[in-house]
Amino acid sequence: MELKLLFPFLMLHVIHDVHSSSNQWKVTVPEKITVLQGSCVVIPCLYSYPMPKSKKPLTKWKGFWLKGKKVVSTNVPKFKLVKLYNKRSQFLGNLAARNCSMLLDSVGKNDVGPFHFRIEMPQFKSFSYSTNPVTIEVTRDPQPPVLSMKMNEKLTASCSVSHSCPAILPRFSWSHPGNILRRSKKLNTWKWETVSTLTFSPRVSDFNKTLNCTVHYRGGKKVTSSTIIKK
Ligand SMILES: *[C@@H]1O[C@H](CO)[C@@H](O)[C@H](O)[C@H]1NC(C)=O
Ligand SMILES: *[C@@H]1O[C@H](CO)[C@@H](O)[C@H](O)[C@H]1NC(C)=O
Ligand SMILES: *[C@@H]1O[C@H](CO)[C@@H](O)[C@H](O)[C@H]1NC(C)=O
């Protein structure tokens, strides 16, 4: 009896939620992103707006990333950006597809934000999503990579790091020659994992020696992890 009464209510509630979330001024961005100093960051961003009354489809969108009143990045061609961000930022998003992602390169210790997105639709309305700012935590030193090793017929070593810069992936160098493979995957909306795998057939003289993996980040920082080659 109780369930019967509850069910229609729940259904209505769900339908109402789905409707309203895509038809209002809303932006989906991370609150805080951790970025290595000197490296880059892609700020993921999706936005939505209320349904315009007019049936005419919109054709023009101007998107701006702002820090206070300063424009950090835009899709508007030839727009004069603040010097600090000129040539360091890139507007990646496709505004027609409600994507407002941006890239910031050579992140400095003062690039903490907060940054927020603004949309201008000349055929409709403009809106600043200033209640959903993005802040950046700039770290000075990279974490050492996680190094692991597996011995089958050959030796396979894996060296793994997480980062925020999918546009310019970290490079890896190994202290031993072999077959090297690099791959990346997304950990969340802004964090990526890049893994380098080294495979080789060890000689007797390789055992008990150090194996090093060095990660070279965008911006020049590097960090090494070591392990001992064992059977
Ligand atoms: C938004 O655009 C960025 C940059 O092109 C892309 O990497 C990302 O996958 C897009 N997001 C969605 C949800 O389509
Ligand atoms: C590995 O790195 C350590 C210090 O980071 C260095 O002393 C050592 O010579 C390196 N070993 C090899 C085989 O490159
Ligand atoms: C490596 O070191 C272990 C002890 O630490 C020793 O028993 C073994 O013989 C060494 N192997 C080689 C190939 O040097």
TrEMBL record:
Residues 1-20 form the signal peptide. Residues 30-139, 144-230 form the Immunoglobulin domain. GO terms for cellular component: membrane. It comes from the Eukaryota. Its main location: membrane. InterPro entries: CD80_C2-set, Ig-like_dom_sf, Ig-like_fold, Ig_sub. It is found in: Membrane. Keywords: Disulfide bond, Membrane, Signal. The keyword Isomerase does not apply. This is Immunoglobulin domain-containing protein.
